[in-house]
Amino acid sequence: MAKKKNNKDLELLLTLGDFTSKDNWDKFFTLRGSEEPFEWYVEWSNLRDPLLSQLSEIQTDTLQILVPGCGNSQISESLYDAGFRNVTNIDFSKVVVSDMLRRHIRSRPEMRWRVMDMTNMQFADGLFDVVLDKGGLDALMEPELGPKLGNQYLSEVKRVLKFGGKFVCLTLAESHVLGLLFSKFRFGWKMTLHAIPHNPSNIPSFQTFMAVVAKESSCLLHPIISSFDQSSLDCNGNQGHGVLKVLEAENKLRTEYSSDADIIYSFEDLQLGAKGDLKELIPGRRVRLTLGEQGMSCFSYKAVLLDAQKQSQQFVYHCGVFLVPKIRAHEWLFSSEEGQWLVVEMSKAARLIMVFLDAIHTDASMEEIQKDLSPHIRSLAPGKSDDRAQIPFMMANNGEKEQTVVKQVTSTTTGNIIVNDVIYENVDDHGGGHVPAEDFVLRCLIFERSLGLLQSEAVLARKEYSQNNLETERKKTSSSSKSRRNGNRRGNDSRSSPIDGSRNNLKVDHSYLASSYHCGIVSGFALIATKLEMAASAGKTVKTAVIGLGAGLLPMFIHGCMPFLDIEVVELDPIVLDLAKDYFGFVEDNQLKVHIADGIQFVREATADMTSSRLTSKNENDVISKESSSSPNTSGTNSLSQGKKSTGFEILIIDADSADLSSGLTCPPADFMEESFLLTVKESLSEGGLFIINLVSRSAAIREMVVSRMKVVFNHLFCLELVEDVNKVLFALHTELSVKQDCLFDSAVQLQKLLKFEHPERGLNIIETANKLKCLK
After folding, report:
1. Could you give the percent of the chain with pLDDT greater than 90?
2. Handedness of CA 643, 647, 650, 651 (dihedral sign)
């Protein structure tokens, strides 16, 4: 307090109790009377110079000043006498307003007095140049009452201030008061903090501070400027230390915000204009935020607000919500900015709010989460607050009827691996009723580190009709592929399969490819169909390597329908091989072998061996040639040397997922796309050999980067875009033996004749896909 309080003053203060009670204040001013003014923090003699200095900076002829919670202070009349005639005083105590009106009506006729609650002012927006608070915020911020009233009051202050106007707040600067003051005036305001001097003969226990906040027309963020340090404060050490600590923390936060880093804003920050007006759609705006303040929600959430980059297109929804389960939050599609924009485009919403669910939401139903989020989402929706347009809640849904965990293991190399049996419902039987819908079962191999990737899926078919269900499988697996791409694994702790009772009647059908990208890989064999046909006709084997075993479905399929392939599979994780054998019917033989090794190292060692063999063969050729020159009667030497010549891979397939999804490459690992490795691959191929990559990335920029690198290394490049999946299959050759674009149909027919099926119609999907290959170079 500015003056040492006498016993009467202390008695009066005790009558207040609750500083927010109008009745208490009426009683206080009735007992005190109107003749003796009461100053809470500072006398006019100490406030005059710093205050008038601030008012002089406002460029206007007639300042409109508002003094909320005026009480019977002399500061208003002192301002009037200093030449500021347009002073409006408000207080919710009728007693003090009546007293002050009677006291000043004749001596200061232009000064206005009104009974009004400062947390709900009856003034138009932008009416005042100055709002002068002399302890009102402190009175509203009683710790046991929380920040509600203080928050309402400051919102009103911001509303009634003109642009260029100032809020001058006299405060004891307690940490909870400064915390609210700093956050409410963070964006679009300039703030300075001053220590008000006191008379040398009257050093109080507490220092009075003056916060001056100037309103700007932009949402820029400025550091808070202070005019003091610890040594210059006339107060106890705890108060000064506390003020400087809160000030330092706020300025550190503002510096981080100003660095334009991808920071997480509070919901309050956004409402205060941290990233512009939330009611307006700003194309390309992306903001990370938290939802669910304590006491206002059952849960807290991390979220991203995204306004569509192209606002001119037709949208289905003005605002939508996309819930991301915890197990999928790490995927590039949801964790990267580029992936998130792709989700916005697919959602057809002008504004999408992507909400990330965490462990705290595990036991809550989707209905509970939606109900909890809805009030926050309404506040974040663009347009008017009374807009009743539908706001859909979207979440990946895979259409599964039932899913059971058959096997779950943890590998030190790959992480968690799950084998699931999945029954799908509501799938039309287009195959003439051969397979009942309730018996349509897929066995899936899932690497939890790559849940967004379409992984190995095998059809489990009943033995008695497994040869007659082509069209049904094609339709159903197409549907399941889409759902697997968009969906996530449902929780099910059961360790028994829903088909355990008839497991002996079910088997993995290796003569059918459930995954469309596997069909795409095989369709690319059409590019070397002539070479394959020549090898098959001559009874020769075609050296083939597959990097990445998965469930072993692709190697087993091509081994079954193209028996002239000599296939080597490279798999880094021995546990994956065990699962493929135990649960997916994978079997090795003389022409299908698995190496437990690093794929890159395998290719490099194979290339080194081939190079060494070729050099040896060349040296032998040179020796034989010399002997032929000296012995004209020698014959057959050319055929002998050609028979010894080493050849590389005829087909090399990369089908391995990445452990590091942050790179934006889900498949293959980034190291496989380095130019040095691509050059090694080129060297490892035989003349006319085919290199195939299963490429999975949601990023258009990363896909273009991969294609560019491939074009640098290889002379001929083809691709296959899979409409229903995110996979893009690339086919590379480096000789002139590649088929031309206009000859693809004939090559596809040639490939069809090479595929050995018990039921030839099984190859139709592969042949149809081969005709979709596009030449990139």
Report:
1. 35
2. positive
Would you give the DSSP letter of residue 510?
Answer: T
What are 305's strand-pairing partners? 287, 353
- Looking at residue 184, what is its pLDDT? 87
The yes-or-no verdict on residue 514 having pLDDT over 90 is: no
Phi/psi at 396 (5° precision): -55, 130
Query: Which residue in this structure is represented by tokens 């009743």?
Result: 388
Superfamily of 516-618+643-775 according to CATH: Vaccinia Virus protein VP39 (3.40.50.150)
Report field, pTM of the whole predicted structure over 0.70: no
pLDDT above 90: residue 507: no
Confirm if 459 and 488 have CB atoms less than 8 A apart.
Answer: no
Q: Which residues contact 554 (CB under 8 A, 6 or more apart)?
A: 513, 518, 521, 522, 546, 653, 655
Coil, strand or helix at 423: strand
Structure tokens at 536: 């098959």
Three-state DSSP class for residue 387:
coil
Give 773's contacts (C-beta < 8 A, 6+ positions apart).
523, 524, 526, 527, 718, 719, 720, 731, 741, 744
Task: Concatenate the DSSP letters of all residues of 612-668 into one string.
Answer: HHHHHHHHHHHHHHHHHHH-TT--SHHHHHHHH----EEEEEE----S-GGGS--BS
CATH class of 7-260: alpha beta
Could you tell me the two tokens for 560? 């079954």
Q: Is the pLDDT of residue 256 over 90?
A: no
Write phi, then psi, for 244 (nearest 5 degrees).
Answer: -65, -35
Pull the structure tokens for residue 250.
Answer: 């706020």
Question: What is the average pLDDT across 46-72?
Answer: 89
Helix crossing, 175-184 with 237-258: angle to 10°? 20
SS3 assignment, position 107:
coil
The answer to whether 571 and 594 have CB atoms below 8 angstroms apart is: yes
For the stretch 107-137, pLDDT in tens is 999 999 999 999 999 999 999 999 999 989 9
668: CB partners within 8 A, 6+ apart: 547, 548, 654, 655, 656, 657, 658, 693, 694, 695
Average pLDDT for residues 181-197, to the nearest whole number?
Answer: 89
Report residue 95: phi and psi, to 5°: -60, -50
175-184 and 148-160 helices, crossing angle to 10°:
40
In three-state secondary structure terms, 293 is coil
C-beta of residue 91 within 8 angstroms of C-beta of residue 71: yes
- Please give the average per-residue pLDDT across 331-347, as a whole number: 79
Q: How far apart are the first and last CA of the chain?
A: 83
* Number of helices followed by number of strands (H, E) in the chain: 24, 27
Tokens 């909890």: give the residue: 372
Same fold, 7-260 and 516-618+643-775: yes
Q: Where are the domains of the chain?
A: 7-260, 265-395, 400-508, 516-618+643-775
Q: Mind listing the pLDDT tens digit for each residue in 290-306?
A: 887 545 677 888 899 99
Q: What span, in angstroms and rounded, lies between the C-alpha atoms of 528 and 751? A: 9
Which is nearest to 10 in space by CA: 28, 23, 27? 28
In angstroms, the CA 753 to CA 748 distance is: 9
3-class secondary structure for 31-71? HHCCCCCCCCCCCHHHHHHHHHHHHHCCCCCCCCEEEECCC
Asked whether residue 333 carries a pLDDT value surpassing 80, the answer given is: no
Say how far apart CA 229 and CA 152 lie, in whole Å.
31
CA 162, CA 687: separation in Å to the nearest integer? 78
Say which residue the tokens 């305001």 belong to: 189
Q: Tell me the backbone φ, ψ of residue 659, rounded to 5 degrees.
A: -80, -20
461 by Cβ neighbours in 10 Å (0-12 / 13-18 / 19+) ranks as: buried
Torsion of CA 659, 662, 668, 673, to 10 degrees: -120
